[in-house]
Automatic annotation (TrEMBL), chain A:
InterPro entries: Ferric-bd. This is Iron(III) transport system substrate-binding protein. The keyword Translocase does not apply. GO terms for cellular component: outer membrane-bounded periplasmic space. Gene3D superfamilies: Periplasmic binding protein-like II.
UniProtKB/TrEMBL annotation, chain B:
This is Iron(III) transport system ATP-binding protein. GO terms for biological process: quaternary ammonium group transport. Residues 2-234 form the ABC transporter domain. It comes from Salegentibacter echinorum. GO terms for cellular component: ATP-binding cassette (ABC) transporter complex. Keywords: ATP-binding, Cell membrane, Ion transport, Iron, Iron transport, Membrane, Nucleotide-binding, Transport. SUPFAM superfamilies: MOP-like, P-loop containing nucleoside triphosphate hydrolases. CDD domains: ABC_Carb_Solutes_like. The keyword Nucleotide-binding applies. It holds the Pfam family ABC_tran.
From TrEMBL, chain C:
One of its GO terms (biological process) is transmembrane transport. It is a multi-pass membrane protein. It comes from the Bacteria. Belongs to the binding-protein-dependent transport system permease family. This is Iron(III) transport system permease protein.
Length: 349, 328, 553
């Protein structure tokens, strides 16, 4: 029995040594093998491809730990100075802002990033940078709703949409960020009223993901669904012909075009405060912003590229240009907690 | 040889005592029976000796070595005590040979010694059998062989015959104690059956409610019990209370308690103290007959007799020498 | 009459003296294991002392009623469904002979191989607009009826259908092993089939049934994936919300404490209902002689038993297989096979370690002479009551402190730079799994250990053999089926485990459950089908094996 404990122990020590060896090498710079440790919330095949490309190009190994941003942030907080994380990638700006305010990121000075990332899509002090954009848009039943009836997010709270709106749970970060943007633009009072109005108008209690909302519109449970643009792109290009047909039945609308523009969010990256491989981390992010990488993001995952030199996927181009809300995304993080509280108070499940 | 000194044990922090201040000694080579009703603390007592329970007070000394005290405990496996459990507790996944040789520490003669022990208990040739293939009596003997194999300083048997039917019981009782006598091991056995105790024990210890009531040689216990309780353990006993004393017209020392054994009562014979009685009910029991008698003064007693042909009106009496006297 | 000396014998002084006498190394080792296992809980309890976060009252005002209401609803809803399916099927297969009984007998255990969140995904897919049901109905030229499963009723259904085997297994074991004689007696008394079942078997099987039910309810209260997906607010989703959305671990810890007290209430209830049931070394009872019945009844029984198998296994698996065909070219590659092997290896290592801990805990406590130790040792299994994510955080608190201390020592004293010894390695992960699943290993081992009468190991000791040797030579062979079942059960649970793995897994290692969740959480449910099927496949083999084992027993 003791032998068994010993074996298990030594196996795990081996594992830990493997990690630490690498870390030592990276720090002393004398290593033949360079690496960068990436904590990421993104888990797409296309990302794997990109990481492989980066390895090929630079010879720097990419180690991935995949988990939700919240969990990664908790993990980094607890690991503190010893955290092996070099880069944190999340799928929304709010979480990056949280990581920054929890003192988990460091400012990066990089001319490349400065030049290629528009200022509202990155942190004012260069703690994090957007990689890809997603717009929060409205999918509507073409047969029941005229495009002219649609206008703004605020309008979703008006009585005419009673029992017509489909939107997912308030625990979803995209909804939280949308709410945060409304808090910034309209004030807390109005935001709360808005949330209560939307809850009043919901066709059913929130459940499922964004795709489920679209399916529910087509099934006739409601008329409008608030969804992320890239899910629509994915549905339209799904392997499942049913999904494609479903997605083709809805019209897409970009709200607030006459005002501040459609709410967008980014998937973004920042360099960890205690990054053992800081140089590699910067190289890594710079690579993700490069035209080559941005093309991969844009074409395989139906996200809008941050790098303005890269054009969107043909699918997205079909939907046309749109005016985006240029609110600095740091604001979303700052107001995230308030958004959750207001949601709860409004009874948004 | 074995010395139990003021042992107390409570399972509920002193509210009730399973054993209270129990002391006695067992001589080398003796067979001692512990007799008591269920709940009298007899099983607790042997578990304490075996080391399977821990005393709250007092000490246990075996061959000059302190086994249990309030300060120190010797682990059961280091006590060199053999214990035969009531349910035998044979190892179901071992054959008899492995069962018996299990406790033998001498590696060389292990098999030989085990075979010897099996032979001793009359089970040679069955060493490849498994416990579930044996009868109850055979299992009992295997358990005995197993306990004796490591040559224990003391052998304890817990209710050794309670799981067997009457015929087998007698037969096995004699066999088992023959073997024990042959090996000369000091033995303690627990029973609720005084027949068992009387027939094979050198000494008997009576336990009641966790206390030693009497300890003596077997014959002494029968003739000189120190309480009505002890007397009644060894046969039907009638307590001579004031009413019965008047009925038989035998005034006895009022400071003491008195009883008479059923077998000392004689029917239709001349005795010192006699009274007339009417038979209310006769129950034929084979070799005996139970009588329910109504005495002259209206008092009712039950009596057992060998005579199955008793008249409806009888004379019943006893002699003063047969009266048992106890201090209150 | 109180003996004069009793005061003295039980004075504090003599009690302490005896405590000192009775404390042996086993007592200390038991305490050490309990402490080790309870460390995350203690870490969380310490957090509890820091007071709730500022949003605690916000939660109490706005959400707590919902959490309690839904959790209570799930407890009752799942209890009813699970009891009907679990006990009903157990009785049917134990009492009656019907076509395909043998096959159905083990098929009924297979839902255990599917994590409930995957069942949830599959059913959402079945009932979805454009889902399988829709397609079938359209093919048959029927109007599509939309059944909304994504609500608390659906959640109760999904959880019950994936967890009822716990009750099925425990009650079937009772019916098979212990009911034979009693049932014969009952039949001899001219009592009818229905009455025998309701008046005799059900009350007798109650401890076995409730033991299974408590396991089910613990899993129900722990569920995160399915509740989250169906949009039902429960304590567990609340914990994640408080911890991650509101960024208040303190508040999450308070919710956990409430959840844990609910589970405690369940455990106490189980103890209470067992209070009069003496656990005895069961003399082998005659097996039930199965009734055959008229052909029509036979097929009727066949269909009754088939329903849970269909709902809990065949339908979700069929849905997953359909999806797997659509996505195989994207998901299935060499990396995926490697990933499966890793998953398999981690589950196996964890199962062995956890079973080792459970066995040590049970036997050390047994060998300890101190009275209180046994009750204390039971604390070791409470990790099961704590949601995986909370266990993970609970593990990180103390182990990080240790790691940082270790790095510091190595650096300052030896001048060696090292990485984390525990965090981000398999040690932390396996440790967390052990904490979480100790109860899963503990129960089958304990119940088989209870069947071995104390006099057996006692005999061994009286023959001069020490505790460890007695264990290996006598007890281990007698409880090895229990140990094997424990290994299998932990193996399956680890394979399915999600939230804890997400937080603690090392860099270079991934598991099937994590992979499936990653896909599903990114609304790529179809892609999640292949890893899900692999989990199911890897878990199915040991489940069938376990069934063989239980039948043999």
């Amino acid at each position: 029995m003791k032998k068994l404990i010993l074996t298990v122990f030594s196996i795990s020590v081996l594992f830990s040594c493997k990690n630490s060896d690498k870390k030592d090498e990276a720090e002393t710079g004398a290593s033949t093998e360079q690496e960068v440790n990436v904590y990421t919330h993104r888990h797409y095949e296309s990302d794997q491809e990109l990481f492989k490309k980066f390895e090929e190009k630079t010879g720097i190994n990419v180690n991935i730990i995949n988990a939700s941003a919240d969990e990664l942030i908790q993990k980094m907080t607890m690991e503190g100075e010893q955290s092996p994380a070099d880069v944190l990638i999340t799928v929304d700006a709010g979480r990056l802002e949280r990581a920054k305010s929890n003192d988990l990121l460091q400012a990066v000075s990089s001319d490349i990033l400065e030049e290629k990332v528009p200022s509202h899509l990155k942190d004012a002090n260069d703690y994090w940078f957007g990689l890809t954009k997603r717009a929060r848009i409205i999918a509507y039943a073409k047969d029941r709703v005229e495009e002219s009836e649609l206008s703004t997010y605020e309008d979703l709270a008006s009585d005419k949409w009673k029992d017509k709106i489909l939107i997912r749970s308030s625990s979803n970060i995209y909804n939280q960020s949308l709410m945060a943007s409304i808090i910034v633009h309209d004030g807390e009072e109005e935001a709360k009223k808005w949330a209560a109005g939307v809850v009043e108008n919901m066709a059913r209690s929130p459940k499922g993901g964004d795709r489920d909302q679209i399916k529910a519109v087509v099934a006739g449970e409601g008329d409008l669904a608030v969804v992320n643009s890239y899910y629509v792109g994915k549905m339209l290009n799904s392997n499942d012909t049913e999904e494609v047909e479903t997605a083709e039945k809805v019209g897409l609308f970009f709200p607030n075009q006459d005002g501040r523009g459609t709410h967008i969010n980014v998937s973004g990256a920042g360099v960890a405060k205690y990054a053992p491989n800081k140089e590699n981390a910067i190289k890594f992010i710079e690579f993700l912003i490069s035209e080559d990488a941005q093309k991969v993001f844009a074409h395989s995952n139906y996200e809008y590229p941050v790098n303005e030199k890269v054009s969107s996927a043909p699918q997205l181009q079909e939907w046309g240009e749109f005016k985006e809300d240029t609110l600095n995304l740091s604001k979303l993080g700052e107001n995230n907690k308030k958004a959750v509280i207001l949601f709860d108070e409004a009874g948004w499940k | 040889m074995l010395s139990i000194n003021s042992i107390s044990k409570s399972f509920d922090k002193g509210k009730n005592f399973a054993l209270k201040d129990v002391s006695f000694q067992v001589k080398e080579g003796a067979v001692c029976a512990i007799v008591g009703e269920s709940g009298s603390g007899k099983t607790t007592l042997i578990r304490l000796i075996a080391g399977l329970e821990r005393p709250d007070a007092g000490s246990i000394v075996l061959r000059g070595k302190e086994l249990s005290s309030v300060k120190k405990l010797v682990a059961p496996e280091k006590r060199k005590i053999g214990l035969v459990f009531q349910e035998y507790a044979l190892f179901p996944h071992f054959d008899l040979l492995k069962n018996v040789s299990y406790g033998i520490s001498n590696l060389k003669n292990k098999k030989q010694r085990a075979l010897e022990m099996l032979d001793l208990v009359g089970l040679s040739g069955l060493e490849k059998r498994y416990p579930h293939q044996l009868s109850g009596g055979q299992q009992q003997r295997v358990a005995l062989a197993r306990a004796l194999a490591p040559n224990p300083s003391l052998l304890i048997l817990d209710e050794p015959f309670s799981n067997l039917d009457a015929m087998l019981r007698m037969q096995l009782r004699n066999q088992v104690f023959e073997i024990i006598k042959k090996t000369g091991v000091t033995a303690i056995f627990v029973t609720h059956d005084t027949q068992d105790a009387l027939s094979v024990a050198d000494e008997i210890l009576i336990l009641q409610n966790g206390k030693v009531i009497q300890k003596d040689q077997a014959s002494n216990l029968y003739t000189k019990p120190n309480s009505v309780y002890v007397a009644s353990l060894f046969g039907n006993t009638i307590q001579l209370n004031q009413e019965l004393q008047t009925a038989f017209d035998c005034p006895l020392n009022a400071d003491c308690c008195h009883a008479i054994r059923n077998e000392s009562l004689s029917i239709n014979k001349e005795c010192e103290y006699v009274t007339h009685a009417r038979v209310l009910k006769k129950t034929f029991m084979g070799n005996t007959t139970h009588l329910l008698l109504k005495l002259d003064n209206g008092h009712q007693i039950s009596v057992v007799t060998q005579d199955d042909n008793v008249a409806d009106h009888i004379k019943i009496g006893f002699n003063s020498t047969d009266v048992l006297e106890f201090a209150t | 009459m109180k003996p004069a000396g009793s005061n003295e014998v039980f004075s504090i002084k003599s009690r302490l003296r005896r405590l000192k006498r009775d404390t042996n190394r086993w007592s200390i080792l038991t305490l050490a294991i309990v402490l080790f296992i309870a460390l995350p809980v203690i870490a969380i309890a310490v957090k509890l002392l820091e007071g709730p976060g500022e949003t605690w009252w916000h939660l109490v005002d706005n959400l707590l009623a919902d959490y309690i209401g839904n959790s209570v609803f799930l407890i009752f809803g799942c209890s009813i469904l699970v009891l009907i399916m679990g006990v009903g099927c157990a009785w049917l297969v134990a009492r009656f002979e019907f076509p395909f009984r043998k096959q159905l007998e083990w098929l009924l255990i297979l839902p255990l191989a599917i994590p409930s969140y995957i069942v949830a995904y599959a059913y959402a897919g079945v009932f979805d607009y454009g889902g399988s049901l829709n397609l079938i109905l359209r093919f048959l030229d029927f109007e599509f009826i939309r059944i909304d499963i994504m609500n608390k009723f659906g959640l109760a259904f999904v959880l019950s259908i994936s967890l009822f085997p716990y009750v099925y297994v425990s009650s079937r074991a009772f019916f098979l092993n212990q009911a034979g004689n009693l049932l014969e007696a009952s039949t001899m008394l001219g009592v009818g089939e229905f009455k025998s079942f309701f008046k005799l078997m059900l009350p007798l099987a109650r401890p076995a049934i409730v033991a299974g039910l408590v396991l089910v309810l613990m899993e129900v209260l722990n569920d995160y994936g399915a509740a989250q997906y169906f949009g039902v607010n429960t304590f567990t989703t609340g914990i994640f919300r408080a911890w991650f959305s509101l960024e208040e671990p303190e508040t999450a810890v308070y919710l956990s404490a409430l959840l844990i007290s609910m589970v405690f209430a369940l455990i106490l209830f189980e103890k209470w209902q067992r209070r009069n049931m003496q656990v005895t070394g069961n003399k082998a009872s005659r097996h039930i002689h199965r009734k055959v019945g008229a052909p029509l009844m036979q097929w009727f029984r066949f269909f009754l038993v088939l329903i849970p198998v269909l709902l809990g296994f065949l339908i979700p698996v069929a849905q997953l297989i359909y999806w797997a065909f659509l996505t195989a070219h994207k998901v299935f590659d060499l990396n995926f096979i490697l990933l499966s092997l890793q998953s398999f290896g981690i589950a196996l290592i964890t199962a062995i370690v956890t079973v080792l801990f459970a066995t040590l805990l049970i036997y050390f406590a047994k060998w300890s002479s101190v009275k209180g130790i046994k009750s204390i040792s039971k604390l070791g299994i409470l990790g099961y009551a704590i949601p995986g994510a909370v266990v993970a955080i609970g593990i990180m608190i103390p182990t990080l402190t240790f790691d940082k201390w270790f790095i510091n020592i190595m650096d300052t004293v030896f001048g060696i730079e090292t990485g984390f010894l525990i965090n981000g390695t398999l040690v932390a992960l396996v440790y967390a799994y052990s904490v979480r699943f100790l109860a899963v290993a503990y129960n089958p081992i304990e119940s088989t250990a209870l069947k071995v009468s104390d006099s057996i190991p006692d005999s061994s000791k009286m023959l001069g053999v020490g505790n460890f040797k007695t264990f290996f030579k006598i007890e281990f062979p007698l409880i090895k089926t229990g140990i094997l079942s424990a290994i299998i059960l932990v193996f399956i649970d680890v394979l399915k485990e999600l939230p804890l793995t997400l937080i603690l897994k090392p860099f270079h290692i991934n598991t099937l459950a994590v992979k499936a969740f990653e896909y599903a959480s990114d609304e790529m449910v179809m892609e999640a089908a292949i890893p899900s099927l692999f989990i199911i496949f890897t878990a199915t083999i040991p489940v069938i094996f376990l069934n063989r084992l239980l039948i043999k027993e």
